[in-house]
Design a protein that fits this description.
Elements lengths: L7 E12 L1 H7 L6 E2 L12 E8 L6 E2 L2 E3 L6 H13 L7 E7 L10 E9 L2 H4 L10 E7 H8 L8 E5 L2 E4 L10 E3 L10 H12 L9 H5 L10 H12 L5 H8 L6 E8 L7 E6 L12 E2 L1
Parallel strand pairs: 1-7, 2-8, 6-14
Antiparallel strand pairs: 1-3, 1-5, 3-4, 3-8, 6-7, 9-10, 10-11, 12-13
Length: 296
């Protein structure tokens, strides 16, 4: 353990995105860009939530985009610069804080303290960057297929306050003094302590889908397109929250008098079964932000 008085200050950024099974098939030209591949081979995936990762030189490991803060910049400005340098992505949406990671041994010979941030970016913005720079790729955080397999055979998912590949929280049982129990997987997915960063970033992402909050304006993006089915919106909620929602309850919650949605005059008959009403947003997400905006 080092005794250096002045540690290095670093930042790591979790960039989330969502993509449908169809989008992955049409837009991913190299299967090695998506991990783990077995989650998409011969099994249902549905809508999936990913975190962007980079290759580690001389290793099969993957890591989050990250780097060190310069002496003349704020930490959040360093985060934006590093994502641009390492991925080629100019962050178009707010960066939100995850936490501070300051284990004395995390930096090796020189102590390193990292400030982690998270954001979500539209898949259309990211797909052209995949495979570039340091082998930019997608690491699965959650998918509808993963949740359904987790739920078999006895409805196990109902015991959890959200599940993901990076961890879950078991609901408290009856009795005093019982709290949620954090469960992290034993197998490591990313280098360093980046698994833990992704887990806690995902826990914060879930807040965008709490109650009647408009997730589109919270996240400053709309991955569903101008018009969409209620079932598409429900999948978006479910894969990001890591839990299934009762269909009728969800519909009531998002189509009430104070809803951020409005029904169009269009119906979608492109899928088997009864044609579905299409919805759109009352107002588009506010994408433009001030250069120095950071939201907690």
């Amino acid at each position: 353990m080092t005794t250096d008085i002045y540690p290095r200050i670093a930042v790591d950024v979790i960039v989330f995105t969502v993509a449908s099974e169809e989008s992955l098939r049409e837009m991913i030209w190299n299967e090695d860009l998506v991990r783990p591949l077995e989650e998409f081979k011969g099994v249902k995936a549905g809508l999936s939530l990913f975190a962007l990762t980079l290759g580690v030189s001389g290793s099969f490991e993957r890591k989050l985009p990250g780097g060190f803060v310069r002496g003349d910049e704020r930490i959040v400005d360093a985060a934006k610069r590093i994502v641009l340098e390492e991925i080629g992505l100019a962050i178009p949406v707010p960066l939100r804080e995850v936490g501070v990671y300051d284990d004395p041994d995390r930096g090796g010979d020189v102590r390193t303290i990292s400030f982690a941030y998270w954001t979500m970016v539209d898949f259309e913005e990211l797909r052209k960057l995949l495979g570039g720079k340091d082998r930019v790729g997608l690491e699965l955080v959650n998918s509808i297929g993963f949740m359904e397999r987790f739920n078999e055979p006895e409805g196990e998912i109902e015991k959890y306050d959200g599940i993901s590949r990076f961890g879950s929280r078991l609901m408290p049982t009856h009795g005093r003094g019982r709290l949620h129990q954090k469960r992290l997987p034993e197998d490591r997915k990313l280098a360093l302590d980046h698994d833990v960063m992704v887990f806690y970033a995902w826990r914060k992402l879930r807040h965008a889908f709490t109650g009647r909050l408009d997730p589109f304006n919270y996240l400053r993006l709309n991955p569903l397109g101008e018009q969409f089915r209620i079932s598409d919106l429900q999948e978006f909620h479910e894969v990001c929250r890591g839990e299934f929602i009762q269909r009728d309850l969800f519909r009531r919650n998002v189509t009430n008098d104070k809803s951020y949605l409005r029904q169009t005059n269009q119906r979608d008959n492109s899928r088997p079964g009864k044609p579905a009403n299409l919805y759109t947003l009352q107002s588009p997400p506010k994408v433009a932000i001030e250069a120095d905006e950071v939201e907690d």
